[in-house]
Amino acid sequence: MDTEPKESSDLLKARNTVETNGKLKSEDLKDPPDGGVRAYSVMVASFLTNGLFFGVINSYSVIYTVLENHLKNEGISNSESRAALVGALTMGTTFFLSPLSGVLTGVLGIRLTAVLGGTIATAALLLSSFFVYNVGVLYFTYGIMYGLGASFAYTPSLAILGHYFKKHLGLVNGVVTVGSSIFTVIMPPLMEYMILHHGLDWLLRLLAVFTLGTAVCGFIFKPAPSMVTKASREDDSWKSLLKSIVNIQIWKNKKYRFWALSMPVALFGYFVPYVHIKKFIENNFVDVNTNLPLQCIAVTSGLGRLIFGFLADKPGVDRILLQQISFYVIGVLTIILPFVNKFGILVAIALGMGIFDGAFIALIGPIAFELCGGAYAAQAIGCMLGLAAAPLSVGPPIAGYIYSINKSYTLPFVLAGISPLVGATLMFAIRLQRVPSNEESINTNGIAVRPVSVRIEKSPSLLLSNGDANQQTNL
């Protein structure tokens, strides 16, 4: 059975030891083009995809305020937690389905998966516009369905970068993820204007039109010719396909295990300020721009992504330590937040939170490369985000529930700030894990990876490591 070409995006130039019919030889992996019109078109499309999706997700506090007020006026109990759950489900579903998105990328290809994601998300927003105050329906349409589409488009938008960039991959990742920061600045005032003059239903329809653009961007995600291989007839079976896209190698890496299990703890309270900060400001300040702190977080988060994306490309940089520092700062500032009684100080805290928010996001990809190598980076990131989905989803509703009991955001924000402190502390366990002395490190643009011995049988397109087939894809 003939198949479509599969994407292979190993970013490591290191020469792999390849065994063919019992004879060892070296094989050079082709480099990504690292520039050109096509490469920069892909970067812009990825930028827009990240911006459109996370601009909407991060600005949910605008919709939350309207929805929560409506539920309260209807006399519905726990209106805060019910309204918060809609947006939290979106973020949680986006991350929870990242592993599935990675699998679909291996089966359908990067381009088709991204187009499918954009189409599903567009349909979700369009359906939501007809049920704007029906929370039960919004849980599915705006929460799960839109999150599903965002996940299917988000993972390919990052994975495709490895097909076109290598030397400055960290910086390019930073540029692309700045899209969400820029759109988070633009979206809140636009969303408020639409709600005020046209209603929540027409806002969702406008967002559906914007989101359709992500499906168009998906068509640009064509894998680079140098990164495409074609499987042979003999190896093309469902069993070998499953092995090529799902593997357990990353979980044999103790350092990765500690990192992947620490991140969900650190991210438990991450989305709480994004959802509740607007309501917090309305309760504690008068005659101020309630969107300004969220916009400040977005602006400096973009700056942080660029700065720390650039640093991640530098040899000798301790990326895990930088991410720990980021979580410590975010945690402390979140704890301080409810005790601030001057709006100027609140804005300053938001600026600081944004810088280190961008830092931890920009470091996710380079850390995955460092711990797992290029062959496993995409699935390593997908699995970590999948584990983080539940904490991300339950954090804001729990904060809303605590607020509904105490009528104060002090305890919710303090608890939200403690979780990144605990997660960052758990990451010290990574440093206690010893690397076997027989494993040499290869440094590629500052990313230390272990050389992988692979064996090829029948077809050079499927690489076998320790007997398991493995598709090479990267974020």
From TrEMBL:
Stretches that traverse the bilayer: 39-63, 83-105, 112-133, 139-162, 169-190, 202-221, 258-277, 320-339, 345-369, 381-403, 409-430
Topological relation to the membrane, as annotated: Multi-pass membrane protein
Keyword field contains Calcium: no
Gene3D superfamilies linked: MFS general substrate transporter like domains
GO molecular function, one term: transmembrane transporter activity
Family matches, as InterPro entries: MFS, MFS_dom, MFS_trans_sf, Proton-linked_MCT
Domain of life: Eukaryota
UniProt-annotated stretches for the region Disordered: 1-30
Identification of the protein by name: Major facilitator superfamily (MFS) profile domain-containing protein
